[in-house]
Specification:
By secondary structure, this protein is α/β, with parallel strands linked by helices. The protein has a domain of about 90 residues: Nucleotidyltransferase, domain 5, CATH 3.30.420.270. The protein is about 35% helix and about 20% strand. The strands form 2 sheets. The protein has a 5-stranded mixed β-sheet with strand order 4-3-2-5-6, with helices on one face. The chain has a two-stranded parallel ribbon with strand order 1-7. α2 crosses α3.
Length: about 130
């Protein structure tokens, strides 16, 4: 009797969508692997502030054994001032992030801050772990 006209089937080409998802996957895999390595420390806990400072180019770490590191490089206390002054000049900054273990001697910490001021640092950011 009456023949119905065939409707065209609608389909979505999935190839471009799969390409975009694959590129996004590669992008996030590459960017997540560029986290700068750091000296393993147990950071003290404090209430996090609302305005987090931008990441420092110069990071000073002080572990529980009293070992001082600028970035990843261990530095003896006697050479700390000259090494920090060189790192500040190289990165063109006067800002220093200080990472200290929870069991660090307070006297050694103050000695580092004093030598850092003498080396030209005038902004200090104390790195900590936020309280839950």
């Amino acid at each position: 009797m009456f023949a119905r006209a065939k409707r065209p089937t609608l389909s979505i080409d999935m190839a471009p969508l799969i390409d975009v998802v694959f590129l996004l996957l590669i992008f996030f895999m590459l960017t997540s692997s560029f986290v700068p390595p750091s000296v393993p420390l147990e950071l003290p806990r404090a209430a996090a502030s609302q305005n987090n400072p931008p990441p420092a180019k110069v990071t000073v770490s002080l572990d529980s054994n009293g070992q001082i590191s600028i970035g990843e490089t261990p530095v003896p206390l006697a050479e700390f001032g000259a090494a920090l002054q060189s790192a500040l000049a190289q990165n063109n900054t006067t800002s220093v992030h200080i990472r200290g273990d929870t069991s660090v001697d307070y006297g050694l910490f103050l000695e580092l801050v004093s030598r850092a001021r003498q080396s030209g640092a005038n902004q200090f950011h104390l790195v900590h772990t936020p309280k839950p």
